[in-house]
Amino acid sequence: MSAVSPSTAPAWSRWWNASGVTRLRREGAVAPVLAFVVFFVVYVIINPALLTRFQLQTAANLVVPLVLVALAQLVIVLVGGIDISIGAIMSLANVVFAVQLETMPVPVAILLSLGVGLGCGLFNGFLVAYGGLPAIAVTLASAFIFGSLAREVLDAPGGGVTKEIYLATSGELLPYLPVSLVWLAVIAVLLWLLLQRTSLGRHIYGVGSNMESVRAAGLNAKLTKLLAFGLAGVLTSLGAMMLASSTVTGDPRSGDPYLLSSIAAVALAGAVFTGGRGSIIGTILAACTLGLIGNLLFFARVNSYWQYVISALIIVAVVGIPVVWRKVAFRVKGNRS
Amino acid sequence: MSTVAPSVGNAAGASGPGSGSSGSGSGSSGAGDSPDGSGRNTGATGRSTFGSVIARVPRAVWPLVAFLVLFGIGGIIRPNLITVDALIGTATFAIILAIASFGQTIAVIQAGIDLSVPNTIGFSALAFLTLVGPLGPFGAFVAALLAGAVIGFLNGIVIAKLGLTPIVTTIAMNGLLFGVILLAFNFSELTVTPDFVIAMTSAKISVLGLSMPAVLPLGLGLMLVLQLVLSFTGWGRSLFVVGSAAETARLAGLPVDRIRVAGYMLSGGLAAFAGIVIVGYYQQASATMGASYLLSSVAAVVVGGASIFGGRGSVVGTVGGALVLAQVSTLVAVLNLGANIQQLIYGVIILLVISLYGRRRA
């Protein structure tokens, strides 16, 4: 935004300074977007069948829960926190959804699951915002609490998720598109509108980037933090329901693997862990990259255990290269002056 | 800065034992917490003589007091729990968790966190069992410890030199190690635990006429050595300075990066040692053998009174924290409440501890 390019500037420069690209750059999302493009091209070359209906649907069902949980983690990282309990919240919302489906009508089960996610988020948010406690310690404690509640609700995988729910969320409801991607798009657009076009969204970015000036400007920073945690809880619950639907089962430990991978996705998206900077599209694409590496290796006939090694290297490379680049650039400039 | 807590009127320890016998640090005799404003400081105003004595008790004592209270409660519920055997049983369980949490303590003190502890434990244990054949038991032991130190070195270099956050770096390392574990080891061959590790951990030995597993004196000895290093060596003290004010330490001329890297190397080496101990005590190994230590190692450190923001903590406190958690699980087992409730109580205890003294120093 700062450098208004004159109309005589070369095309690439005009493109580079266009407002959408500037926003991506400022939010640190250029690297993960490029990483995803490279990843996607490699994927399609190795396995052109990805673009067929069945495979695309399988891949979408695999990544959509991770994307939603990563978006939840992103909202918390934006206000300068981190959520260790996100996997436990996911497990709890997952089993509540699955168990309620046994006796209740579907909308009631959805609302109860969303309520559980919201409640867990508000519990964390209240202690962090109004109790003045560190987010990492609060959510460490609530990870134990929510996880044990999840196993109280349902001790072993089970529940009443039906084939119809699978079809409506993850199956062949629409002619050409995987329906889970449609749900994801709806949620992501709503979240984008909330964060970019409402005062709450601007406050969330503001609280993370500079708590003191937000307070000085008279905004309610504590309420903003509380609402951010609540919003993250709702997003986690959506991810949990998508997971329960696509696997057609409720599982009290299903959320556990999502704790570390949600943080990894947010890191890969270029978000700053002290808050205030992070991109929605970057997080979505980062989660897709991390979630599909195992698939890609399968089709490339590589031992899919390599996915863990490759994911780690991608994170360190994508997050580390800009840092090294800045350091080198700083040193070169320093020598010149 | 020191291990002495400006403890906010501590209700739980009203029956505290004799006044702080080992007031090692410079007790900050100032007016409690810094002027953080917003009227948070509830109990600390108008501090009496008793209050100032309480404030001088090293923070590491409180988890031990809490453990004794819980031990007493156990005795009230079930009198046969107050026996030396019951104490040794709980302490053995605790010391294994404590050994797994020592590395985490070092990482937290220097304002980091080590989320690669689970798979460092798994990797070193499996590497140890695999290498016993070619290198012999002692060579394998040394090699496994070195592997842990190398893992810590890589963590430390990326955190200190590249400037990535400790959480992201160690999560990436944890994932990478899991891949290596799955790719590198042939699990069906890893069934024989070498004798000397069994002698070091699960074998019953007699100390002062009491029969206990060897891991108990081993862990206590390790605690003593580490606490001496932390409290009395220049490097140990500088770890606290780096943890509480890295920029100040840099300006004062401390080699901050080198101290950090060394801290993570020690953390990785200790996690590797924990892996060998765990494999020796339980005599079984699997790819996910470290998984349960991801959250519980941080829990033991936090309950042990360390500040999650760095600059404060002790391995004695970590042993105390592990004892509290172990005693809770003993009580839960005695009352037949089930493992779920145990996790729930862990969470409540952590919440209580951090609301007592977990607030961010302004």
Commentary on this structure:
The complex is a heterodimer of chains A (337) and B (362). With 337 residues, chain A is mainly α. Chain A has a domain at 53-247. Chain A contains 15 helices and no strands. The longest helix of chain A has 31 residues, at 306-336. Chain A is globular. Chain B is an all-alpha fold and 362 residues long. Chain B is built from 13 helices and two strands, in the order ααααααββααααααα. Chain B has helices spanning 49-56, 61-77, 84-109, 117-162, 166-184, 195-200, 215-232, 234-244, 246-251, 256-282, 293-303, 315-334, 339-357; strands at residues 204-207, 210-213. A two-stranded antiparallel sheet of chain B has the order 1-2. In chain B, α2 packs parallel to α12 (315-334) and α3 runs antiparallel to α10. Chain B is globular. Classes of the chains: A mainly alpha (337), B mainly alpha (362). Chain A binds chain B through residues 82, 84, 127, 131-134, 136-138, 140-145, 147-149, 151-152, 260, 263-264, 267, 273, 303, 305-313, 315-316, 319-320, 323-324, and chain B through 38, 40, 113, 115, 158, 162-165, 167-169, 171-176, 178-180, 182-183, 295, 298-299, 302, 308-309, 340-344, 346-348, 350-351, 354-355, 358-360.
Summarize the structure.
The complex is a heterodimer of chains A (337) and B (362). Chain A is mostly helical and 337 residues long.
Shape annotation of chain B: globular
Helicity level of chain B: 55-70%
- Which class best fits the helix and strand makeup of chain A? mainly alpha
Ranges of chain A where pLDDT stays below 50 over 5 or more residues in a row are none
The largest pleated sheet of chain B is described as:
2 strands, antiparallel
Determine the structural class of chain B based on helices, strands and strand pairing. Answer: mainly alpha
SSE string of chain A, helix = H, strand = E? HHHHHHHHHHHHHHH
The total of helices of chain A stands at 15
Mean pLDDT of chain A: 87
Based on CA atoms alone, the radius of gyration of chain B comes out at: 21 Å
Largest interface, chains and sizes = A-B, 42 and 44 residues
What is the H/E string of chain B?
HHHHHHEEHHHHHHH
User: Beta fraction of the residues of chain A?
Assistant: under 5%
Number of helices of chain B: 13
Oligomer class: heterodimer
Morphology call of chain A = globular
The proportion of residues in beta strands of chain B is under 5%
Using only C-alpha atoms, the radius of gyration of chain A works out to: 21 Å
